[in-house]
Amino acid sequence: MWDYTDAVKEHFINPKNVGEIKDADGVGNVGSIACGDALRLTIKVDENDVITDAKFKTFGCASAIASSSMLTELIKGMKIEDAKNLTNDDIAKALGGLPKEKMHCSVMGREALEAAIADFKGAILPMAQGEVVCECFGVTDLEVIRAIRENQLSTVEDITNFTKAGGGCGRCHEQLQALLDEQLQESAGTAAAAPKKIKRMTALEKIKKIEEVIEREIRPTLKMDHGDIQLVDVDGDFVTVSLRGSCAGCHSSHATLKGYVEKKLREQVLDTLVVEEDRP
């Protein structure tokens, strides 16, 4: 039996903000009843981009209900830009902690928030562009990679605890191990190459540096071939850009994004950045 905190018990027995905002400005749906957990988050946003109301409906365990309830309490009164930086760890900590086997509930809450914000902005989630590695729970490689990086995961069991990937038939365990090995090797290589202490950047500092590199190096290079680029969004380590001019719709646009734009930003800003293209 798992040991739940008093906060988890309170938000499970007396959940806050249950229901649905009928004229919601943003809607986030994650999970699936068929997979065991599902969450629908609706938010209301005012003219100053402040979340004035948030409600949820969830199908899941006590941790899922408590995480969803706490999520709505945390984001009410937040500006959209601040809410974008809310992590699953923030939700878990606000509850006084969650059993490791239930951390995926806090991750589901964060993903529902991201989906609702994307819906409000009319944007496409970078996670939606990943390749599904766990068919049982519909988890993509990008979701697994982010969970590994943000939570310093070291085993396939850890990945399952945070994402549910691998918790069904188990056929994806080999792929999960490969993703884990790749991330651990990258981390080891980075640590060996740069043993000095790395300063943690704030979200604003990261965005500013990304903008500087795009303006100083990337845009001028693309314009030489009659192309252009525009920064659309920065969500954690995921950078969404829009290719313009001759780069838009080019058959080699993916190579441009990954082989040039992403590589340049990783070299000069942060080596964990993932660049994705904004698609209408």
Write the H/E string, N to C: HEEEHHHHEEHHHHEEHE
- Tell me, what's the shape? globular
C-alpha end-to-end distance: 47 Å
Helix content: 40-55%
Q: Spans of 5+ residues with little confidence (pLDDT < 50)? A: none
Q: What is the level-2 CATH architecture name of the largest domain?
A: Alpha-Beta Complex
Calculate the mean pLDDT score and round it.
86
Q: What is the strand arrangement across the widest sheet?
A: 1-2-3
Would you kindly provide a written description of the structure presented here, covering whatever features stand out?
With 280 residues, the protein is an alpha+beta fold. It has 3 domains: 6-121, Sufe protein. Chain: A, CATH 3.90.1010.10; 127-193, Arc Repressor Mutant, subunit A, CATH 1.10.10; 203-277, Fe-S cluster assembly (FSCA) (GMP Synthetase, Chain A, domain 3), CATH 3.30.300.130. Helix content is 46%, strand content 18%. The chain is built from 10 helices and 8 strands. It has helices spanning 6-13, 62-75, 80-83, 88-94, 103-121, 141-151, 156-163, 173-193, 203-223, 253-268, and strands spanning 26-32, 37-45, 51-59, 132-134, 139-140, 227-235, 238-245, 274-277. The chain has a 3-stranded antiparallel β-sheet. Strands 6-7-8 form a 3-stranded mixed β-sheet, with helices on one face. The protein has a two-stranded antiparallel sheet with strand order 4-5.
